[in-house]
Every structure is written in C-alpha cells, then in structure tokens.
Design brief:
The protein is of the alpha/beta class. Helix content is 39%, strand content 21%. The chain has a ten-stranded mixed sheet with strand order 3-2-1-4-5-12-9-6-7-8, with helices on both faces. A two-stranded antiparallel sheet has the order 10-11.
C-alpha cells in the first residue's frame, strides 16, 4: 500500500481547508488519507472526571467524523481513515512523518509573543518532519480554485535536488506550469553577474525537464531577497515549494529565515521539503 497523506485536524476554522487540500493531494498521489487529531487533554490522568473525559472524547470523535465525511464527499475515490490519539499533537505528526507521503497542517496565523504568525505545532512539524510538509493558510482558496502554477525557490545549497524534484512532480501531477526562482538579495553589479546567476539556476534544473517533459518551466533570477521574491510569487501560484533550511539550537532544529517568512506571509500553501 502507498504511504498515506497525513492531515492534522484540530477543529479550528482552518481545519476544513486543511482537509480539502490533504484530500486533493491524496487524490493526485493515489494514496490513502489519514486524518489525525491528537491532544494530551484526552489522556486520562485523573485531572478531570470520567464524565468530562467521555464528553471530550465524544466531541472530538464527532469533529473527526465530520472531517472524514467532508473528505469523502470531496474525493470519493480516496480511502480515508481517522484516528483520535491522547498524545501531543506535534510529536504525533512528527512520528507519523517517518512513514508518510506528505503531512498537511493548517494555520490560523495568530501572532505570538515572538512576532511570528504561523502556529507552534505547524512550525515544529515543518522544521523536523522526515517527509514534505504542506502548510495551508486559512486564507488559501479551495484546491480546485487555484491556478495551474507551482513556484519553487532554488538557492545554492547541496542536496537541493529533492526539493526541485518534488516541485517537478507536483507540477506534473497538477498539469501545472513550474516557475523556478533564484533570488539572491543583491543588485546585479554587472551583466556577467546576472549571467552567472542564470547559469547557477540552469545547472540546478539540469536533468529534470527530460524526466518531466510535460512540465513547462520558466526560470526567474531576481535581485530581491529570497523571502520577498517567494512571498510575491505565492500570489498567483497554487503553492510555493522550498527546501527545509534547518538550523540547530537549544530546542532542536528550527527553520531558516526564508522558510519562516513564507510560513508567516505566503498567500498560497507552502511545501517544505526536507533535504535529507
């Protein structure tokens, strides 16, 4: 059996959009869809009465049932499963990512104390997942309403071929055009500098078009900051694909500044592809 698409469901106003995108991706990839709701509040540690736990489980089971019914209505050809777990949400989705085709998370983009808008669970999953993560902003249209356009950010990093390959595959599955953007955040000092950046982008893309002859590609070299260029590209794309630039820290891996900016400000869904 194909690895599933995993969608985190939290009952928020963003959940239906997340479910719709997860179902669409499962349909494109011919794989099952698993809807997961995990919360430590469901763990029976004696802090609540039995009646309170039962009511909470009833409410959240109904929420998952509604999400499952919605996914089946949207994509009747997709096998859908739902699971309710008494575990921490981020840890659960990270564990699931080891055997998943894709993890889909939604965000309400509520500003936190650190000034970031993307939720902490989604950020943790995007930073540490072992498979690609698709982050769906609440403002994103339904999948069917999105343009046939995929954008991919191409930087000068080793191992970036997985990100580029994933973007080509997504564009092929969607029957979409692919725009490859190399933005390096400095003005062109001379004509030969732009030629050099064009060459870097061409080299990064070399070999992919023959594998995906159905995908038309536009190469774009920009002197904008990468975050600025990719956020701008999100207005008019079905999704923006970037590699997971991960940096270590006291609390484990964290995303780089470009990935963080996209998660906070992109108008379309953002796919974070681990370069491992």
């Amino acid at each position: 059996m194909n690895a599933p698409v995993i969608a985190g469901v939290d009952g928020s106003s963003a959940s239906p959009r997340c479910v719709a995108w997860a179902a669409a991706e499962a349909h494109l990839r011919h794989c099952p869809l698993e809807l997961v709701h995990a919360s430590t509040l469901l763990h029976r540690d004696g802090s609540l009465s039995d009646d309170a736990y039962e009511q909470m489980e009833t409410d959240r089971t109904r929420m998952l049932d509604d999400a499952e019914a919605y996914a089946r209505m949207l994509r009747p050809d997709v096998e859908v499963r739902a699971r309710l777990l008494d575990e921490e949400a981020g840890r659960t989705l990270l564990a699931e990512s080891g055997n998943a085709e894709l993890v889909v998370v939604g965000t309400r983009r509520v500003a936190g104390a650190d000034g970031r808008l993307f939720g902490s669970v989604g950020r943790e999953v995007a930073a540490r997942a072992r498979c690609p993560v698709l982050a769906i902003p609440a403002s994103a249209p339904e999948p069917a309403a999105m343009p046939a356009e995929v954008a991919v950010g191409v930087q000068e990093r080793h191992g970036e071929s997985r990100t580029i390959g994933w973007a080509f595959e997504e564009a092929s599955l969607r029957g979409a055009h692919l725009t490859a953007i190399h933005a390096f955040g400095a003005e062109f000092g001379a004509a030969r500098q732009k030629v050099g950046q064009d060459t870097l982008l061409s080299e990064a893309l070399a070999g992919w078009s023959p594998r995906y002859p159905d995908v038309q590609v536009t190469r774009t070299v920009s002197d904008q900051h990468p975050a600025q260029a990719l956020v701008a590209a999100s207005d008019g794309a079905a999704m923006v694909v970037v590699g997971a630039t991960r940096r270590g820290g006291g609390n484990g891996p964290a995303l780089g500044k470009v990935d963080q900016a996209l998660l906070d400000h992109a108008l379309s869904p953002v796919a974070i592809v681990p370069e491992i």
